[in-house]
Write a structure and sequence with these properties.
It contains 16 helices and 15 strands. By secondary structure, the protein is of the alpha/beta class. The protein has 2 domains: about 200 residues, 3-Layer(aba) Sandwich (Rossmann fold); about 160 residues, NAD(P)-binding Rossmann-like Domain (Rossmann fold, 3-Layer(aba) Sandwich). A hairpin with a 4-residue loop joins strand 13 and strand 14. It is globular.
């Protein structure tokens, strides 16, 4: 298939937004997203289609300044906080939702929330949702948060986190994480190859991390709290064992659970990490949220923190064991430029399709649970994407 160049690589998104312009022009969006060039392009198409993007919350740790400038030039107010905790502690989603509702009181626009991480779940439970027609969630982390909150949310929830199109994006995320760590280690003269790697979490992203590590000539171990996933990892050719055994063997750990993989009472306790991990083990978080490692605990228990490079820090513990952390615990896949826009066209198109269903007030969508769109609709996106690629 040849390369295609044009005004936008979000070709299917552009087509979907053009199919029902009157519906889009009556929409108001609230967005929580990574501030990357791909997002800037996506929001440009939304605003050009006539939608009002009433506000955006920038995801911490993934802010591209040039993309931020492009988004603000679209007239979109971007709220930027230093951490996820600040976003929730300062009730930023609640404030944005309240302001959007007040605007919709005047012009009647329907509000769609595009969330990445479930941060609007609390606002949707606590506040009046008179103009909100629904929310679209992008990540597994947020999907799980909305499942827990769904019975108290009075509008439909759609999730793309577990779709086949999201699986394609996950291939790039998994590959980018390993490529990024290879570059980070190369900067200080170390090869990533020839070591033992542990992947925690064998979901969409984790399995692609494992596959890429194998291609980089590492011995790959896998641990997941769900044994059916451990079985799948074994059948895929990776070594699985008890948590203690795989920790003892790992030189580098990639955590891709979508929740907190190394923290108090989650997949691995701090005690497990200190008692079982090898000296100078390297920790690399993968995904979209700074939550794979309990960095606050590491910082508080460390005797000293030593910068090994701009991207690696060594935490010396009183147990005479060192723990090395990449990017201070944030996702290493963001060390590389964002996933190609033409690939993200698939996921963004599914999100647009979800938002259009919400705007149409589709009564087949259940309230009180998390919905997804069907195979037929996903196939339509895939067919359109391939049609553009092949110029059919």
């Amino acid at each position: 298939m040849p390369y295609r160049f044009g005004a936008t690589q979000l070709r299917v998104v552009h087509s979907l937004l053009s199919d029902d312009p009157l519906l889009v022009k009556k929409a108001r969006y609230l967005v929580l997203e990574h501030v990357l060039p791909t997002t800037a392009e996506y929001l440009r198409l939304l605003t050009e289609a006539g939608a009002d993007v009433a506000g955006m919350i920038a995801k911490p740790y993934s802010v591209n300044e040039q993309a931020l400038d492009s988004i603000t030039k679209l007239g979109i107010d971007v709220v930027r906080k230093a951490s996820y905790e600040e976003i929730e502690d300062d009730a930023v989603p609640q404030s944005l939702l309240q302001k959007a509702q007040q605007k919709s009181d005047g012009d009647g626009r329907k509000i769609v929330i595009l969330d990445v991480g479930g941060y609007f779940a609390k606002a949707l439970q606590e506040q009046d949702v008179r103009h909100v027609c629904g929310v679209v969630e992008d990540t597994t982390f947020g999907h799980n948060r909305y499942i827990r909150a769904a019975e108290n949310i009075r509008v439909p929830i759609l999730s793309v986190a577990r779709s086949e199109l999201k699986e394609i994006e996950a291939r790039f995320v998994g590959k980018d994480a390993v490529v990024a760590m290879d570059l980070i280690l190369r900067e200080i003269g170390i090869s990533i190859s020839g070591r033992n790697a542990l992947v925690i979490g064998y979901g969409m992203i984790g399995k692609n991390v494992a596959r890429t590590l194998a291609r980089y000539d590492l011995k790959v171990y896998v641990y997941d709290r769900v044994d059916t996933r451990n079985l799948r990892a074994h059948s895929d050719g990776f070594t699985v064992h008890t948590k203690k055994k795989v920790l003892e063997r790992a030189d580098i750990i990639f955590s891709a659970t979508g929740t907190e993989a190394i923290s108090g009472d989650n997949a691995l306790s701090y005690k497990d990490m200190v008692d079982c991990c090898q000296p100078d083990v390297v920790l690399a978080s993968v995904g979209s949220r700074k939550s794979e490692f309990a960095m606050a605990s590491l910082r508080s228990k460390a005797v000293r923190r030593i910068e090994l490079s701009d991207w690696l820090a060594k935490y010396e513990l009183s147990t005479n064991k060192n723990i090395i952390v990449a990017l201070d615990g944030s996702a290493v896949n963001f060390h590389l430029p964002s996933i190609p826009v033409e690939v993200l066209d698939l996921v963004f198109s599914e999100i647009v399709m979800c938002s259009l269903r919400l705007l149409k007030e589709d009564r087949t969508l259940a309230v009180g649970s998390v919905n997804s769109i069907g195979v037929k609709e996903l196939s339509g996106v895939a067919k359109e994407w391939l049609r553009y690629l092949n110029q059919i």
